[in-house]
Records
---
Amino acid sequence: MLDTLQHSPSLAVGTAAVLGLLVGSFLNVVIHRLPRILERDWARQAAEVRGEAAPALEPYNLVVPRSHCPACGHRIGVLENIPLASWLWQRGKCTACGKAISLRYPLVELAAAALSAAAVWRFGASAAGLGALLLTWALIALACIDFDTQLLPDDITLPLLWLGLLFNLQGVYAPLEAAVVGAMAGYLSLWSVYWLFKLTTGREGMGYGDFKLLAALGAWFGWTALPSVILLASVVGAMVGIALMVFARHGREVPIPFGPYLAGAGLLALYFREPLGALFGIHA
């Protein structure tokens, strides 16, 4: 099968797109449920610290309970759970109560499909292509979770960091030495900014999840990619923040998640690392 995909680029890209649709459907579950799973776990740990009995709760994870409509509780059947097609067939509404289904669901599936196809088109059916798929799916999930909850879960960022180092044992994206330095520099750079801002203003400017995400990107692409990733994320984040304050009356005291911009910059680095590095006169 792998040999067939390697000798037929169009088949490999099409297969990646279909796989991306399926994974995108699962990513919607991760985006919705993982923050709630973490909140339940934190509540249990807090109860243990207080010496209280943990509350008895129904099982809740990425598999249980089955997907259902949040408005009426209708369980989503197999035919209602086909990526993208079901949303279009149902015209974006629950078949039981008619409540609108968020446009987020098909958009995540489409993004996963398009980016998966692009990853295999760029890197082929290879170790680099597999890594690009895993990185892309993780960044989509992290961007959406941070946008919703301002959380970047360790359950995703830390495995992503180790995966980057694992792939670079063979120098798939960067030499191992550059990847290790990139992980350290990525974490320490934002950690330093965090403490400088906190000591200066008495407030927290970002979360620790941002440090870990940038460390993960450094592990994937090496330290040479970090200046362009930080600059791209900062410029786009600042532009969006200013636009929100001007046009949406977004208060300055309301935090804006930085994770989506880091994730977007990471995807750009995946495809355009060398041209972006050339802007800074840095070469891997």
Note: Residues 184 and 256 are 25 Å apart (CA to CA).
---
Amino acid sequence: MPSYSTLQIEKDAAQPRIARLLLNRPARLNAINEEMPREIRAAVDWANADDDVHVIVVEGAGKGFCGGYDLAQFGQGEIDHPCQQERAPWDPMVDYAYMKRNTEDFMSLWRSPKPTIAKVHGHAVAGGSDIALCCDLLVMAEDARIGYMPTRVWGCPTTAMWTYRLGPARAKQLMFTGDTIDGRTALAWGLANDAVPAAALDDAAMALARRIAGVPRSHLAMHKMVVNQVMLNMGLEQSQSLATLFDGITRHNPEGLWFRRYAQAEGFKAAVAWRDSGEPIPEGDDARERIRQLERDKPAR
């Protein structure tokens, strides 16, 4: 089996036609770090190179599927990073290139000729929802949560999958509010293929995987290509380019910089608590003044 720092992949012991890709940073709620996007692509490539494998199940270790990007690193850290530059002026194309590469890595799950199933327990949120929605099918625990809270501030889902999976009205509702929905709602809205009690999640996901695994690889690849082509004809790649560019803007406009400075000053948990509380997000001149105040106070902290 290949060895990775953020995940593991292996063929299921009872059914070698099924590969199980486990996001494996449980101490950080499987949060996305520098290595994870690249390792997801490498693991998908490994599964596609094995003729025994017909379907890939993606799941998370520990308490949840994936809590999004690791804000301890990307949010409150004092780093000059391609996707959150502290240098001025900000170079949007450096930011775009970095985030587009991550998007393409996540999309390896969508482009894989072998079907992919996201098995979601706990939370699949922010960047973690990008990973889940790049999979072809979604099986959720009824009490699991999925959503993209950073649409409230400091983020735009770069895979742009919400509209293609939910339709415009539901997608706008989630993007305008930053709310999450549970597995039951995801099933009712047509986002999830199944939602079951948490104790039955593995059985449900593996039953679906076994059913798919009995179909010849060539047939699976052709059927997936047809459906994916419809999404491409609808403009998926163009939507992702725009979303990835806007993601960089959300992190460098006054509201995004306020969130960044607040996370650096008070910790990312405090910043996320404000973001998700429903209280108004500082914007415009108010955000600029708060940034100045946080920067003035910084030496004393």
Note: The chain has a mean pLDDT of 94.
